[in-house]
Design goal:
Layout (H helix, E strand, L loop, with lengths): L14 H15 L5 E5 L6 H11 L6 E6 L5 H20 L8 H8 L4 H15 L4 H8 L2 H9 L3 E6 L12 H11 L3 E7 L2 H11 L7 E5 L5 H11 L7 H11 L3 H17 L7 H13 L4 H14 L4 H12 L5 H8 L3 H13 L3 E4 L2 E4 L2 H16 L5 H24 L2 H9 L5 E5 L2 E5 L4 E7 L2 E7 L5 E6 L5 H11 L6 E6 L5 H9 L2 E4 L1 H10 L8
Parallel strand pairs: 1-4, 1-5, 2-3, 3-4, 12-13, 13-14
Antiparallel strand pairs: 6-7, 8-9, 10-11, 11-12
The chain binds adenosine-5'-triphosphate and magnesium ion (MG).
Length: about 550
């Protein structure tokens, strides 16, 4: 297959995932079909990634079909599905001009793929005769197979936001879909979803098939390096200090969509002001424009997200809980105390948030998944809900002051040595149970936390009667030797939990060695999850 390389791809374009997808598509051509599910929160770039894949794996040997599944009546779904299939078939097989109209597509394909067209006719008459929606659904999902039979070209069927198949008026759609997936060996199903909780449930319960198993890939926000690379590229003609660039990464949580919107505004404000460097003023102004102003894209986006959820819920209690969590009150008992409710009432609501991918439970803590949404809840929504003051100018000023304060705090934290930041983190532990890296453990309240310097290596020593922690930060890539050095430093400290923070990554053998010696490895993601749980800004370098 030509053009399937992932050369010249930037780190923020997710080369590891893209190369895996390209490999799987090449496998499909060679009669090895592996179905894939890509899950990730909204606006992380799932759809964009797939279009990049389709672009890069363009060839005449497979037929790609991309369907965006939205809640809609089955008739509309069927018509769209058929149209896309016919268009894609002609695009690959026909050199003539294609008119993007249903009748044209249908007539042009009539003689070329008669069996497929025959079932399309049956679908049309089933729709006319109001046959059961299940039958229509079943015929629609027969089409990729028929197209394969008639063209002998494998099909790549992308179903974006596939969980919405539950909302196209068909009862139990995944039962029928799983039958199709199992027998259609030449159709690769690539399912995408931003409803992670629902999608995982469907994949594990309804689509856990014998022969059609899904390889699941989770899309995360940009890591620090990718975010910095992305910002640099976006603001190529604007000078920006490291602090402001890192602040943007922290503030947006590394979500490409937010970074894109804010950097676009920075460019436009800088242009108006004829400035070629990003000042704090311009940055705060761009944030105000996008996140605070009524017409701001991010403001509208969060407002929709918030109301979409609350429309179906007991508004006051839900919004009260969400605002408290945004303010940093992350434990059920704390929330219940504030709102004068029982723990089980709070937990019932929190479960709804979890099922809607708004909150993740991490031991006793509840964390809002999207950190920019947290800032919006705190500085935009909260202010509007609590305020009786109609002076819009003073409230805009207050918003800007809040963002300036956040920037100021980020600045102070960034200037600290990472060891100092970890020491301060350890000092906030209060005997809570936490779950991180799929491990549950207790964050004991330490009697004392010290930083001890020993031959150029700093050890952060959390002292506790029964549960000491010893932590060392690796600021370079960690290999086996580095793990050995760390073990030598802590060898007399039996009974202590040993943690090595791999800020710049770790090689596979070193990780194995650490595992054997019961050393716990934290990467930037782990350390930032902890900082975030304890209301401390993300570490960005
Ligand atoms: N790797 C990337 N590089 C540049 N921009 C990106 C990248 N990923 C996403 N974006 C931008 O972020 C925005 C959201 O991307 P996209 O629509 O693909 O996300 P999604 O995960 O499919 O979201 P949803 O779940 O809401 O459908 C788009 O404007 C896109 O251009
Ligand atoms: Mg999408």
């Amino acid at each position: 297959m030509k053009n399937v390389s992932v050369a010249n791809i930037k780190r923020y374009e997710r080369p590891e995932i893209l190369s895996l997808l390209v490999k799987r598509v090449a496998g499909l051509k060679n009669k090895y079909r592996q179905n894939i599910a890509i899950l990730g929160h909204k606006s992380l770039g799932k759809t964009r990634l797939i279009f990049e894949l389709l672009q890069r794996s363009k060839c005449s040997e497979i037929i790609p079909i991309y369907i965006n599944v939205e809640p809609m009546p089955i008739n509309k779904f069927a018509k769209n599905f058929i149209g896309v299939i016919l268009y894609q078939y002609l695009f690959i097989e026909d050199t003539g001009e294609i008119v993007d109209e249903f009748d044209f597509l249908f007539n042009r394909c009539k003689e070329k793929i008669p069996k497929t067209i025959n079932v399309i006719k049956q679908i049309e008459s089933a729709i006319k005769n109001k046959t059961s929606t299940y039958e229509i659904f079943s015929m629609v999902f027969e089409l990729p197979h028929l197209l394969y039979e008639e063209t002998k070209k494998p099909i790549l069927l992308v179903l974006d936001e596939f969980h919405n198949l539950e909302n196209i008026e068909v009862e139990n759609p995944f039962l029928e879909l799983s039958n199709k997936i199992m027998v259609q060996k030449h159709t690769m199903y690539l399912l995408l979803s931003s409803a992670i909780y629902a999608a995982e449930n469907i994949l594990s319960k309804k689509l856990s098939l014998l022969f059609g198993n899904f390889e699941t890939i989770k899309i995360q926000p940009f890591d620090n390096i990718s975010a910095v690379e992305f910002i640099k590229e976006q603001l190529d003609e604007i000078k920006i200090t490291e602090t402001l660039r890192n602040f943007l990464t922290f503030f947006t949580g590394g979500y490409p969509f937010y970074l894109e919107i804010i950097t676009e505004h920075i460019k436009s404000i800088a242009r108006d002001k004829k400035s070629d460097c990003l000042t704090e003023d311009i940055l705060v102004c761009a944030i105000e424009e996008t996140m605070y102003k009524d017409y701001g894209v991010i403001n509208q986006y969060f407002r929709n997200k918030y109301h979409e959820f609350l429309n179906t819920s007991q508004t006051n209690l839900f919004s009260g809980i969400l605002l408290l969590i945004a303010e940093g009150k992350k434990k059920t008992a704390e929330i219940a105390g504030f709102l004068g409710k029982k723990n089980h009432e709070i937990n019932r609501c929190i479960n709804r948030f979890i099922q809607n991918d708004i909150i993740t439970k991490k031991g006793v803590f509840h964390e809002i998944n999207d950190s920019l949404f947290v800032h919006w809840l705190k500085y935009v929504l909260n202010r509007q809900e609590q305020s009786f003051n109609m002076d819009i100018f003073s409230s805009a000023q207050e918003f800007k002051t809040n963002i300036n304060n956040l920037l100021y705090r980020f600045n102070i934290e960034s200037k600290k040595r990472i060891e100092q930041r970890i020491k301060e983190l350890f000092e906030t532990f209060e005997n809570d149970i936490i779950e991180i890296d799929k491990k549950r453990f207790k964050l004991s309240r330490f009697e004392k936390v010290e930083i001890n310097n020993n031959n150029g290596i700093s050890l952060i020593d959390g002292i506790h009667l029964k549960n000491n922690w010893l932590c060392c930060v690796g600021k370079e890539f960690i290999d086996e030797n580095k793990v050995g050095e760390f073990l030598a430093k802590v060898k007399n400290k039996n009974g202590s939990r040993k943690i090595l923070v791999a800020l710049e990554g770790i090689d596979a053998n070193a990780r194995l060695k650490a595992l054997e010696e019961k050393v716990w490895i934290w990467d930037q993601k782990t350390i930032n999850e902890l900082f975030s749980l304890f209301e401390k800004p993300r570490f960005v370098k």
